[in-house]
Design a protein that fits this description.
Elements: H1 2-19, H2 21-43, H3 51-75, H4 79-88, H5 91-121, H6 128-156, H7 160-188, H8 196-222
Helix pairs in contact: 1-5, 2-3, 2-5, 3-5, 3-6, 3-7, 5-6, 5-8, 6-7, 6-8, 7-8
Length: about 220
């Protein structure tokens, strides 16, 4: 029953995204234009950025793209819509469907961003499988954390986008530091064993956020 509710809500989100293609186009335009601005900035200096700057800029672009992508999840729904969902499905289905949808969306955005980034700014990655795996893990982490924060911000009312930014950055910094560390190891081609502890920590963080959302979101929704 729970899986059926999740699949129904997930299909609803995909249909809404397809109908509102301008929002998706704006997100992709943001990623493409930001990468192009980085390309112009470094091309004026006569080359590509050094690997540490290349790595940091990529994650900054993906972080702000994730904020823009996830922010509209709950905040585009009116209180009346949320009340209607409350009568039809369980709150656990709502939060899990939102997390799954945002995860798929951010994975696509992350892979597209990496493709554009390597086209314009070169590809200094020595261990591509590790880098891509870390990138997808980061997309999952961004989606789970920001989805919960988006739900809190939408329930609080007022300027939800500002509140979401304030709440999310302290939560994202530890995850971002681990992601940058693993991707830097992949850029340098270091032994994968050096990244194992960081990857396990990222997996644990994602599981903790997912479990916390599953347990606490029903109380948030009823509030």
């Amino acid at each position: 029953m729970l899986l059926r509710e999740i699949s129904t809500l997930l299909a609803k989100d995909f249909r809404l995204e397809w109908r509102q293609r301008a929002a998706l186009g704006g997100l992709l335009l943001y990623v493409g234009s930001t990468v192009f601005v980085c390309f112009l900035s470094f091309s004026l200096r006569g080359g590509t950025p050094p690997p540490p700057a290349w790595n940091a800029l990529l994650w900054i672009i993906l972080l702000f793209a994730a904020l823009n992508a996830v922010a509209k999840g709950f905040m585009q729904e009116s209180p009346g819509q949320r009340l209607y969902y409350y009568t039809l499905v369980r709150p656990q289905a709502v939060i899990l469907a939102k997390m799954l949808y945002n995860t798929l969306l951010l994975m696509v955005v992350a892979l597209l961003g990496l493709f554009l980034y390597t086209v314009f700014l070169g590809n200094p990655i020595q261990d591509l499988p590790l880098f891509v795996a870390n990138l997808l893990l980061g997309a999952v982490g961004f989606a789970t954390t920001l989805t919960l924060v988006s739900g809190i911000a939408a329930k609080a009312g007022g300027n939800g986008a500002t509140l979401m930014a304030i709440l999310s950055f302290p939560l994202m910094v530890p995850m971002l530091l681990l992601l940058i560390k693993v991707s830097k190891n992949a850029l340098d081609g270091l032994d994968r064993g050096l990244s194992q502890q960081s990857i396990l920590t990222l997996l644990a963080l994602n599981m903790i956020v997912g479990a916390t959302s599953y347990l606490l979101f029903p109380f948030l929704w009823r509030g």
